[in-house]
Write a structure and sequence with these properties.
The strands form two sheets. The chain has a three-stranded antiparallel sheet with strand order 3-5-4, with helices on one face. The protein has a two-stranded antiparallel ribbon with strand order 1-2. Helix 1 packs antiparallel against helix 2. It is 19% helix and 23% strand. It is elongated. With 172 residues, it is α+β, with helices and mostly antiparallel strands.
Length: 172
């Protein structure tokens, strides 16, 4: 007998979502199941679950829209107050990286006190030397314009500038 040589035919196509269930050999109704028979759950806009109580069933709903929208005006006031107070007498130096971390934590802590439930806060603070330079900052994200938002504040003094951006993203 001669061995057949197999040639490489390139990448093979695979089905997108096939699920195989392992079943014991003793199972009389052993069948091969595929994804066409079993739906694969996808992320949906709202999730419903039931909570069983001793006497009745209660329906629990995950909110996709916040009860109270995040106030960018109030957050901007807080950022302005914290940054102005902290950077008023600071000269640009290598210690500004520590100051930016401190400002970021301080801003997040102060805005969390506004008690916006289910909002994730991301604070970005960049401090640079004010010396005929140009800085471009950009960010990319996927979010919902109906519930997610941001606010920004730019500070300048004699020797430095600071860019503070606070993103508020609603968690479903």
């Amino acid at each position: 007998m001669q061995k057949e040589e197999k040639q490489w035919k390139g990448p093979q196509k695979k089905s997108k979502s096939t699920i195989r269930w392992k079943m014991s050999k003793e199972d009389p109704q052993r069948k091969s199941r595929t994804s066409s028979q079993i739906p694969i759950p996808r992320r949906c806009t709202s999730t419903w679950t039931t909570k069983k109580e001793p006497r009745d069933e209660q329906l629990i709903h995950c909110q996709t829209i916040p009860e109270r929208r995040f106030s960018t005006d109030r957050a901007h006031e807080i950022i302005k107050h914290i940054v102005d107070e902290r950077l008023e007498t600071v000269e640009y130096s290598c210690s500004c990286s520590d100051i930016s971390k401190e400002l970021s934590d301080c801003i997040k802590t102060a805005v969390k006190k506004l008690l916006y439930d289910r909002y994730k806060l991301v604070c970005y603070v960049a401090i640079g030397q004010l010396k005929d330079s140009v800085v471009n900052c950009s960010s990319r994200a996927i979010w919902s314009p109906s519930s997610d938002t941001f606010t920004e504040y730019i500070y300048k003094n004699r020797s430095l500038f600071a860019v503070c951006i606070l993103f508020a993203v609603y968690k479903e």
